[in-house]
Amino acid sequence: MIGVAVEATGVFLAFVGGPDGSSADDAGLGPYDEIVLRGARAVGERAGLGKVIALRSSTGSWRDAESASSGSDQNDGAGPGELRVSAGSGEILVRFSDDEVAGQIPVPDLGPFARVVVGTHEVRGDEDTLAVRVSRISPWQLTDKAGPSFQGAIREALVVVATGRSVPNRQRQPASPSGPAAKRPEPAKVDAPSPASAPAPADDDAAPSVWVERERRAPNIYISRPDPKR
């Protein structure tokens, strides 16, 4: 019986440079259904369960979460490490997102790429710079590779997934600005009452049916009499 090797599918995370640097041909940790990078953590998710697989140290380098410690940060003399995300012989897609922002238009998937490298100040897909940031604690600012309408947009997290797998949408989908507006149900029409059946107006607003003189004053009567003879 001849065994056939089956290549694992999914995304892998490897360390480039730094104390946990991997060799160029090392696939790294994985495979995972997706890898989510947010803040100083990289989380590998598999079958709906997430696990922290990498942490960024105080010096800015990425470390394996199992070996990262406060002592190792002080001995970090190998320079700032980067993260390399790949899918073996396959390709990967990248999505930038903000989980808690309602009504935000989602950024289209970027890629496919053979690999994505996440450094301290930039994210690169193959040779293209996808996003930059001014410091290691700042959010990502997208470049023109995301499209003219998203250039300069700010996003906190990025998700990497292998092609052929759907990237879960972590944002609330807003209605398309160019699409037709949602129609509200029209209120039920009520036939106007006929004049015969219409209710009488209130006493204060109603005009009297017969005009009457509200105040009668005594008329002034003048009688002309001849003057008496003197």
What does this structure look like?
The protein has one helix spanning 70-74, and strands at 11-16, 29-32, 34-38, 41-46, 49-56, 62-64, 82-86, 92-97, 110-113, 115-118, 122-125, 128-132, 140-142, 154-155, 157-162. It has 230 residues and is an all-beta fold. The radius of gyration is 39 Å and the shape is rod-shaped.
Q: If you average the pLDDT, what whole number results?
A: 74
- Given helix and strand content, the structural type is mainly beta
Rounded to the nearest angstrom, the radius of gyration is 39 Å
Q: What distance separates the N and C termini?
A: 165 Å
N-to-C SSE string, H for helix and E for strand: EEEEEEHEEEEEEEEE
What is the number of E strands?
Answer: 15
Major sheet characteristics: 8 strands, antiparallel
Coarse morphology: rod-shaped
Q: Strand order across the biggest sheet? A: 2-1-7-10-11-12-13-14
Determine the fraction of residues in helical runs and give it as a percent range: under 10%
Task: Kindly estimate the percentage of residues that lie in beta strands according to DSSP.
Answer: 25-35%
Compute the number of helices.
1
Low-confidence parts, pLDDT < 50 over ≥5 residues?
Answer: 1-6, 169-183
Entry keywords:
15 strands; 230 residues; mainly beta; 8-stranded antiparallel β-sheet
Task: Give a short overview.
The protein has 230 residues and is an all-beta fold. The chain has one helix at residues 70-74; strands spanning 11-16, 29-32, 34-38, 41-46, 49-56, 62-64, 82-86, 92-97, 110-113, 115-118, 122-125, 128-132, 140-142, 154-155, 157-162.
